[in-house]
Amino acid sequence: MVVIEIVTGDITREQVDAIVTAANESLLGGGGVDGAIHRAAGPRLAQAGGAIGPCEPGDAMPTPAFDLDPPVRHIIHTVGPIWEGGDHGEADVLASCYRRSLQVADELDARTVAFPAIATGVYGFPPDQAARIAVATIRSASTDVQRVRLVAFDDDSRRHLEAAVAATA
Ligand code: APR
Engineering a disulfide at 151: which of 8, 11, 88, 136 sits with its beta carbon 3.0 to 4.6 angstroms away? Predict the structure, then answer.
């Protein structure tokens, strides 16, 4: 059973085996959390991402973490859905981001993983729905990951995550 922790802060400061980034399909880096992670990991991250991309929405692909400090060894790049109102399969794509990221973490033997609130920024996914999808997918995943840290960047995001965890406790 995965232990889910909710923290508020900058995901690049997380002390975990793998950090998940909310990427775009090119894996070349962007703004938001992806930009922060690329800045922290250094220019080799974009080179590595470009070499394995593109990444389909809902899929997840790993690279090394380069200039990020131990214990972080891996960056798991996942591409969330762009919110188009909710009738275009966005919920399924978002669930797939979490499911595939945990599958990739298992392939890497990563036991602790930090996730940002995927798709809730530039991509516009409603953060309350996104939090429920994240928690439900993590809870139902068959994975060897022992600890998942859901990193909120602001209090509003944290409240949605806490409500989602409380609703499934
Ligand atoms: N640490 C943790 N969370 C962060 C950080 C950070 N340093 N910076 C931003 N966030 C949060 C945002 O507040 C939001 O809740 O990450 C969440 C995801 O927002 P985005 O980074 O905008 O990601 P997303 O909505 O999935 O859009 C992805 O944006 O940056 C581009 O290249 C990226 O095209 C892609 C798109």
Answer: 11
Mutate to test the pocket of ligand 1, among 24, 33, 68, 128 (most ligand atoms within 8 A of CB): 33
Q: Assess contact for 77 and 23: CB atoms under 8 A.
A: yes
- Is 17 part of the annotated catalytic residue set? no
Q: Which of 100, 115, 111 is nearest to 153 (CA)?
A: 115
Contacts of 156 (CB under 8 A, 6+ apart): 127
The CATH architecture annotation of domain 3-168 reads 3-Layer(aba) Sandwich (3.40)
Kindly report, residue by residue over 83-114, the tens digit of the pLDDT.
999 999 999 999 999 999 999 999 999 999 99
| pLDDT tens-digit series, residues 8-34 | 999 999 999 999 999 999 999 999 999
Q: What is the pTM of this model?
A: 0.98
Structural domain boundaries of the chain?
Answer: 3-168
Q: Which atom of ligand 1 is nearest to the CA of 157?
A: 15
Catalytic residue among 10, 17, 34, 128: 34
